[in-house]
Design brief:
The complex is a heterotrimer of chains A (623), B (236) and C (260).
Chain A (H helix, E strand, L loop, with lengths): L4 H32 L6 H22 L3 H30 L4 H23 L15 E4 L2 E4 H23 L1 H11 L1 H6 L4 H22 L10 H16 L4 H21 L4 H15 L28 H20 L2 H27 L7 H17 L4 H23 L4 H21 L1 H4 L5 E2 L10 H24 L1 H11 L1 H6 L4 H27 L1 E2 L6 H14 L6 H16 L6 H15 L3 H14 L4
Helix pairs in contact in A: 1-5, 1-6, 1-8, 1-9, 1-10, 2-3, 2-4, 2-8, 2-9, 3-8, 4-24, 5-6, 9-10, 9-11, 9-16, 10-11, 11-16, 13-18, 13-21, 13-22, 13-23, 14-15, 14-16, 14-21, 15-16, 15-21, 18-19, 18-21, 19-21, 22-23, 22-25
Chain B lengths: L3 E12 L2 E12 L3 E5 L6 H9 L6 E6 L2 E2 L5 H7 L1 E4 L11 H8 L11 H7 L1 H4 L11 H13 L5 E5 L7 H16 L3 E6 L2 H7 L2 E6 L2 E7 H6 L1 H7 L3
Parallel strand pairs in B: 3-8, 3-9, 6-7, 7-8
Antiparallel strand pairs in B: 1-2, 1-4, 4-5, 9-10
Helix pairs in contact in B: 3-6
Chain C lengths: L1 E12 L2 E12 L3 E5 L6 H9 L6 E6 L2 E2 L5 H6 L2 E4 L11 H12 L15 H10 L15 H14 L4 E5 L7 H18 L2 E5 L3 H7 L2 E6 L2 E6 L1 H6 L1 H8 L2 H14 L1
Parallel strand pairs in C: 3-8, 3-9, 6-7, 7-8
Antiparallel strand pairs in C: 1-2, 1-4, 4-5, 9-10
The chains are: A mainly alpha (623), B alpha/beta (236), C alpha/beta (260).
């Protein structure tokens, strides 16, 4: 054996240290979910804020005296400040969205993520800030013949200590008992005279405190940076999902598993540890669809589903509108400048992508939080074939939807086995796998920088000709998908969404249909991605990232997910607005986040919904 | 009227587009047990939920201890002294018996407070299970725990939704005794019931609800004594 | 002849026995009711026949073919229609579209991406609705119907698959008394005309005694009695555990008197 035992031991110990950190963060996320049923994207932002607070507060305290006491006092103060921010978020936002569909909740908390990112950049600036090391824990400890940092040993102990304190809190205090009761049945707790609002506020304090604590404890190991939030939130999601959402013990187990998997995975597959983690999640969910220690969510009561109802036909006026829109898109190169043509091309591409997402979400009730993965995979397929293999544009554009369809079928096989929030989390996880591969496989994908030189065929090289190519392909794609929505297959997806039990009882293989639907939507997004690669001339990992997935969701939300063509409208509005406002301000993320939240709070049925009520008022028909 | 602890007038409620209650009116005097009878789907549970604020009333008034409570959130209504025991018990199954009681605990207003010890006198079965997880209890034991949990809030009146449902005859007797003990303690009880015998054994007053409207309103004794009246309202 | 034969089904949830050696059979055109207190295991037995639950042991035979543990969709294709305790329909669709969907599924055309769903099987769907007296409501959105009508549409959906066996879990639950009798008459008429076997659970004794050919009584997962309505009514064991509670009343009176 060439691998020494002591080396393995140290590796296992550093796995335990990461597990501890991960658990402290994830315990807050799972706690908040258990009580409020909201999956809080902003939990990663609280973690980041904890780190920034600590790199601000702790050095200031250490100036007084370099003592371990002051260091940890600073860490706790930072966590408490973040806890108060959690309270603010509960009172200002969460309180208003406890009853809206989960997709809207996810989007609203993502709006907070965007706002916090800009706020952090504004307050602390774009540079990473390194924190002080912990006084008294700066040395190394010899373990067998290996040096191991004392601070890591401290972290190993911190996880179980937090677990123990949480256990005491949950079992020995009235607040904890109420929290556990509310995790099972919120309404009943209210009927027994407990003010849920206070309970929820308290939960958010505790959840945000734990996230802040996790962040503050990291400062001797990693610098505070504005990218910490999204990196940690996916890991925390994975931990809570594997452990079973709402289960603190489950989160601890899952964190241990993942810590060890990462520590040893790095030795065997240094490049794809992230992939291993997500594969573990997929495997766990296939065997235990509610996580290790989670419990099945009660089936939602039969309520009118959010999404497309019986799709209507266009009336004459609407046909005219559609014709007008097509005419504008077709004539644009004649009167618009190059910039307008570029924006119009992108609107068409995003229109197809958003339409394909609403095919899933609005028509199939399958909430995908990682639709950009299939868009990006299509873009990468085309881009790599053209640049690496010298394939012409035309066949590369045909491969794009095939490649994305293939991956959608592969990932979808696992995804459609799940329901609700677990399903959404798995779509996110698979999207992050795809993102990680494109980001880390530098030799092939060019890593972070991506690949340039993805140009269309010579005949389509001009912006205007390419615009017409996109117009034809995207419009045909949308028409084809729209046709499927009206066809028996589209109706079957709606049927399975309305009542899976009824659909099974009339002979529909619900899982197989959802799988096929997922594959088709992925392929269509891939086609859009391929078109996008050639229009931009380059590909990079942001095309698969969470922010783009959220953009797509915002588009269908803006357009109205209960409307068949609304998402195209939403894509046009969203992309144009973003294009106009982004260059005008340094704080476009803040604006975007605020707009998403406003959309969820005051305009939840989107433009399509507003139009439908208008139409109902004039025709007297049902909306 | 001062002796009425609960007064419901022309209450309307429903779920989504479905209307369930079409103007329900009823009264409950202090220390009185009233039974709200009717078939599945007649609107019994909906009436209790609407009174408790778990389902927003669409019209009508609900007064509790002289105060208008319709439109209030459930926790405020509970704090005024109205207890609620739901149809399917809704015990916190992860919690122990003692913890379930703790969730229901609220300070008493004036009279002697219920304590777990006093409750165990009424529900002797529970005493031995204080530390047991509620998930491991039988249906009858859970029902008792559900009532005990509500009593921990020291209510002046309790809404009891189908207390006899699914219980073995032996347990039914205990349950009926529990209702009568509550009455002796001066607690008014409005219970919804499909089991006429159970209702007749505990209630002073009877209401029969059908399709969301009250069809009979009178003394339980009169309903019990008159088979024709009973057949008209409750085909048992 | 025997349409459905259930042999010694057993099912436990955790430590709780939900079904113990449940055996019975059902002939074509027969109405078989399953009654018992809540928690007696009616829905469990029912769901093991319908494929929603897999039994721990035992067999379910449909016309001699073993269907134990098959998924619901496979059991449906073999000619078993069902209605649920809380009606399951497609709420976002119109009444007619619900029926068209069921017919599309019966024709195994749910993967068809070419045809327009709204043009398929209209006449057949209307005919089914007409049979149930719901033709006037064809265009109405499902979520605007009264619950009794939702139950009728659900029955129509179940009939769209031309079943040989109909499983109905509390078919009249939540309906007004007048509607209940009408629905049961309708079911009985269709069952006898088309020789469909009907297995139903029910709390409403009027519905049971008026329409069942035979009755099974379940208590704590076991069948304690089976027979014609007259036999079951006369069975003292059934009297004791389910129908009559006169013993209870006497006991309560005595205690109430003792307490003053």
């Amino acid at each position: 054996m060439s691998v020494e035992f002591s080396f393995l031991l140290v590796q296992a110990l550093s796995g335990l240290a990461s597990a501890s950190s991960l658990f402290i963060i994830a315990s807050g996320l799972t706690l908040v979910f258990g009580v409020t049923r909201i999956v809080n994207f902003a939990h990663g932002s609280f973690y980041m804020l904890g780190a920034y607070m600590a790199v601000t507060i702790v050095p200031w305290l250490l100036q007084i005296e370099r003592s371990p006491t002051l260091f940890f006092a600073g860490v706790l103060i930072s966590a408490a400040v973040v806890g108060v921010l959690g309270v603010a978020m509960e009172i200002l936002l969460l309180r208003r969205i406890y009853k809206v569909p989960e997709l809207f909740q996810l989007l609203a908390t993502f709006g907070v993520v965007l706002m916090v990112q800009d706020a952090v950049l504004h307050i602390w600036g774009p540079l990473d800030i390194a924190g002080p090391r912990a006084p008294g824990l700066r040395h190394g400890v010899m373990i067998l013949d290996q040096r191991f940092p004392a601070y890591e040993l401290f972290l190993i102990a911190a996880g179980p200590v937090v677990l123990g304190l949480l256990w005491l809190l949950m079992h020995k205090t009235r607040f904890g008992i109420l929290l556990r009761a509310a995790t099972r049945d919120r309404e009943m707790v209210g009927a027994l005279g407990v003010n849920q609002a206070l309970l929820f506020t308290g939960t958010l304090f505790l959840g945000a405190f734990l996230a802040g604590l996790g962040g503050a404890l990291q400062i001797p190991r990693v610098s505070a940076s504005a990218q910490m939030d999204l990196a940690i939130i996916t890991e925390a999601f994975v931990v809570t999902v594997i452990g079973g959402m709402g289960s603190i013990g489950g989160a601890f187990l899952a964190a241990l598993l993942i810590g060890q998997l990462q520590a040893f995975g790095v030795l065997i597959f240094p490049k794809i540890t992230l992939v291993l983690v997500f594969l573990l999640m997929a495997l766990v969910l296939v065997v235990k669809p509610w996580g290790l220690l989670g419990r099945p969510e009660a089936a939602p009561p039969s309520a009118m589903p959010e999404g497309i109802a019986s799709p209507g036909r266009f009336c004459v006026f609407e046909k005219l509108l559609v014709a007008l829109a097509l005419l504008v898109a077709a004539m644009l190169p004649l009167f618009g400048d190059a910039y307008a043509v570029k924006v119009a091309t992108e609107v068409l591409i995003f229109g197809l992508a958003a339409f394909s997402l609403n095919f899933l979400v609005g028509n199939g009730g399958i909430v995908s939080f990682g639709h950009a993965a299939y868009f990006g995979l299509g873009a990468y397929a085309s881009g790599l074939l053209v640049t690496k293999l010298g394939m012409p544009m035309e066949p590369a554009l045909i491969v794009a939807p095939l490649a994305s369809g293939f991956f959608a079928a592969l990932f979808g096989f696992f995804i459609v086995r799940l329901q609700g929030i677990y399903l959404a989390m798995l779509t996110l996880a698979f999207a992050q796998i795809a993102y990680a591969v494109c980001f880390q496989w530098v030799e092939v994908t060019g890593g972070d920088n991506g690949i340039v030189g993805v140009w269309p065929a010579p005949w389509a090289a001009s912006r205007i000709v390419y615009h017409y190519l996109v117009l034809v392909v995207a419009v045909l794609g949308i028409i084809a998908l729209r046709h499927v929505i009206y066809a028996p297959f589209g109706a079957s997806l709606r049927a399975a969404r309305d009542s899976a039990a009824r659909a099974e009882a009339i002979g529909i293989d619900v899982r197989a249909h959802r799988w096929l639907g997922f594959t088709i939507a992925g392929a269509a997004a891939g086609l859009a991605g391929g078109l996008y690669a050639f229009s931009k001339g380059s590909i990079d990992p942001t095309l698969l990232g969470i922010p783009l997935s959220v953009d797509f969701l915002a588009m269908i939300l803006l357009g109205g997910m209960q409307s068949v063509v609304g998402p195209v409208l939403g894509a046009a509005a969203f992309h144009s607005i973003k294009d106009v406002f982004m260059p005008l301000t340094d704080h476009w993320r803040f604006l975007l986040g605020a707009s998403i939240i406003a959309l969820v709070l005051i305009f939840p049925r989107g433009l399509g919904g507003a139009y439908a009520s208008l139409r109902a008022r004039f025709t007297g028909g049902a909306p | 009227m001062a002796d009425k602890v609960l007064e419901v007038e022309a209450l309307r409620a429903g779920y989504g587009p479905a209307e369930i209650l079409f103007g329900v009116s009823l009264k409950l005097a202090r220390g009185e047990v009233a039974a709200l009878m009717g078939r599945n789907g007649a609107g019994k549970s909906t009436t209790l939920k609407a009174i408790m604020g778990l389902l927003p009333p669409r019209a009508g008034q609900v007064r509790f201890a002289g105060q208008e409570i319709s439109g209030m959130p459930a926790f405020r209504i509970a704090r005024l002294g109205l207890g609620y025991v739901p149809e399917d018990r809704r015990i916190f199954t992860d919690l122990t018996v003692a913890e379930n009681l703790e969730v229901g605990r609220r300070a008493a207003r004036g009279h002697a407070a219920w304590t777990p010890e006093r409750l165990f006198e009424i529900f002797p079965n529970l005493a031995a299970m204080r530390g047991r997880r509620a998930a491991a209890m039988s249906g009858g034991e859970q029902q008792m725990l559900a009532i005990a949990r509500t009593l921990m809030g020291n209510p002046d009146a309790v809404l009891l939704d189908e207390p006899s449902e699914g219980l073995a005859p032996v347990i039914l007797e205990l349950m009926a005794e529990a209702v009568l003990s509550m009455k002796r303690e001066g607690i008014a009880v409005l219970l919804s019931e499909q089991n006429f015998d159970f209702a007749a054994a505990v209630a002073d007053r009877a209401y029969v609800i059908e399709r969301g409207e009250i069809r009979y309103d009178g003394s339980m004794a009169a309903l019990e004594a008159d088979p024709a009246l009973r057949a008209q309202h409750l085909t048992l | 002849m025997t349409l459905l034969a259930v042999e010694a089904l057993n099912k436990k949830f955790g430590g709780v026995v939900a079904a113990r050696d449940v055996s019975f059979s059902l002939a074509a055109g027969e109405m078989l009711a399953m009654i018992g207190p809540n928690g007696a295991g009616k829905s469990t037995s029912f769901n093991m026949v319908g494929g929603q639950l897999r039994p721990d042991s035992g067999r379910v035979l449909l016309e001699g073919q073993d269907i134990t543990g098959l998924p619901p969709r496979a059991i449906c294709r073999l000619g078993v229609g069902r209605s649920f305790q809380v009606a399951q329909t497609f709420l976002s669709m119109s009444v007619l579209e619900n029926l068209q969907m069921a017919l599309i599924a019966y024709a195994q055309r749910t993967r068809d991406m070419i045809a327009r769903a709204e043009a398929l099987f209209r006449a057949e769907a209307l005919e089914l609705l007409d049979q149930l007296g719901m033709a006037d409501a064809a265009a109405r959105p499902m979520n605007t119907l009264a619950y009794g009508d939702v139950k009728r549409v659900e029955l129509a959906i179940a009939l769209a698959g031309k079943p040989r066996l109909l499983l109905m879990d509390e078919p009249t639950a939540g309906m007004a008394p007048g509607e209940r009798a009408a629905l049961m008459r309708l079911v009985a008429g269709i069952a006898r005309r088309a020789a469909i076997g009907v297995l139903f659970t029910e709390h409403d004794m009027d519905a049971v005694f008026a329409h069942a050919d035979r009755i099974l009584v379940l208590v704590r997962g076991e069948i304690i009695a089976a027979g014609t309505p007259e036999e079951v009514r006369a069975n003292p064991e059934v009297q004791r555990v389910y129908l009559g509670t006169s013993g209870l009343r006497a006991a309560l009176r005595a205690r109430a008197a003792a307490h003053g």
